[in-house]
Amino acid sequence: MRILTFIRQVLDAEESVHVANNAVALENSKLVMDTMDEYGVEEALRLRESGIEAEIIAVAVGPGRTQDALRTALAMGVDRAIHVETDLRLDAIALSKVLAQVAQKEEATLILSGGQQADWDSHALGAATAERLNWPQATWTSALELKGTTLTGKHDVDEGSETFTLELPAVITTQQGLNEPRYPTLPNIMKSKKKELRKEPLDQFNVTPKVNFISAEIQVKNRLNKVLDGKDVPAAASQLVDLLRNEARVIA
Amino acid sequence: MILIVVEHANGKVSKSTREMVTVARELGREAPVTALVLGSGVAPIAAEIAKAVDQVLVADLPALSQYDSELWSAAVAQIATEGEASIVLIGGSRSGREYSPRVAIKLDAPLLEDIISLKASGDKLTAQHYTYLARVTETIEAMGPVAVVTIKPGVFNPATPRTEAAEQFDVDLNLPTARLKVTGKTAERSSRVSLTEADIVVSGGRGVGSAEGFTQYVEALADQLGAAVGATRAIVDAGWRPYSEQVGQTGKTVQPKLYIAIGISGAVQHLSGMNKSKTIVAINRDAEAPIFKIADYGIVGDVPQLVPAILAELKK
Lengths: 252, 316
Known about the structure:
The structure holds two protein chains of two kinds. By secondary structure, chain A is an alpha/beta fold. Chain A has two domains: 2-205, Rossmann fold; 221-252, no CATH class. Chain A contains six helices and 15 strands. Chain A has helices spanning 35-49, 67-76, 92-105, 125-133, 186-192, 233-247, and strands spanning 2-7, 9-11, 19-20, 23-24, 31-33, 55-62, 80-85, 110-114, 137-147, 150-156, 161-167, 170-174, 197-201, 211-217, 226-229. In chain A, the strands form three sheets. A nine-stranded mixed β-sheet of chain A has the order 11-10-9-12-8-1-6-7-13, with helices on both faces. Chain A has a two-stranded antiparallel ribbon with strand order 2-5. In chain A, strands 3-4 form a two-stranded antiparallel ribbon. The mean pLDDT of chain A is 95. Chain B is α/β, with parallel strands linked by helices. Chain B folds into two domains: 2-170, HUPs (Rossmann fold, 3-Layer(aba) Sandwich), CATH 3.40.50; 200-315, Rossmann fold (3-Layer(aba) Sandwich), CATH 3.40.50.1220. Chain B is built from eight helices and 17 strands. In chain B, the strands form three sheets. Chain B has a nine-stranded mixed β-sheet, sandwiched between helices. In chain B, helix 3 crosses helix 4 (94-106). At the A-B interface, helix 3, helix 4, strand 9, strand 11 and strand 14 of A face helix 3, helix 4, strand 7, strand 8 and strand 9 of B.
């Protein structure tokens, strides 16, 4: 079988965000593979290590620098990578059109993708891709097994969680708890340099985004920052309750 | 028409549905605000939402007794097409954000996700939403005869009911077969108010010391205030609390009137789930903890001493 793992390159969550010219400025910031996508790469590798014969392909869409995230995936152990190169920002619905076409061309039967994107805070890519392929999907998956063509797993729903079964082909979106992604070892990093990283232009995918990004700003809510010293416990407790009752008026 | 897909649980219309009604009314379009109720045994839901909208479409079918993304998206897309909806409003719950992309693709429509404002001008929709783990506010635009929009819960004021009830119509649906088979459920429902609908949230982190400490300080304070409880990823990972209580990037996003963070240092992933709260209170031993930077009120000190003193003060 062939497994696609979709990779996005995002700002490291520990880095602060900067806005310039109405857009988030990523120059001079540390960019990494989205943590959510790392779970997908790791899960694909684990499925193979459990004895399933599979070729694992990492796919990314983005500017030239996106290659670095694909190199990380290759160093973790995926077999080859496809980079659809574009400077255009694609929302999840537009992106799913690219991913679905790549999946069809590669005859993949399982797609793994992050449950939420750490840059655009979108949840939509997994289900959108499944819809384009007319496949089922399970989102927010925290446990996964594959026997033959049947997936079994556990995923989170509105309140609590569910166990499920699903027949391939399918899309699975990942989240924390699914696994602990491995770090690339030095020998694997060396080996990955010889692996195939194929570039494809975006225009062959016939994608026109329907959402336009107009501007970005960092809205800082002014906080009161009234911090009390808790050494005198009763005094601090009484003062805090008084502030919440009579100044903020948020409790009775 | 403007179509609102009604969210409901335990026989009641969700607060976020009433928030969607506000969004629909404020768009100021000439189109009727139409509620679509999907489910089984949903007559009380239809009756309740009828007091807030212009018309109600009801699909009361055994096949819809359980949410499924393929069933829900097929139903919503069919109704939106038949009714020539210009906007489809869907709640920003986990399920809403799961099936809404399918609806957008079926309708060949743009998807505006988790929006915090929405304005219409002719065929153009302008919306705002948060990005970069809720640190950036972004403005986006979409054009077209129809758009699918998910609404961030807790941002808009819930619409108040009217006295007269709108007319209800039963609808026929062509439903596919659900391919995801649910084999078991773990409901992590607590007796408290739901985390995303609560006016007050009391959350705990590592600084509460232990699972027992969480009960003693966080749950006790929450119960005194009639609040929901939340937790950081660290203590969910440690097994002290269920995942359903996790607030942050990979958990729930909350925006209550009052958020009390007990023993929480304030990692960016946690802050992204609560930094829009109206008033933030932090109690932490470490004066340098990042949580104090976004707090309106705080006490630097010992949780095991301070929380019982606050409880005593509240009971006075």
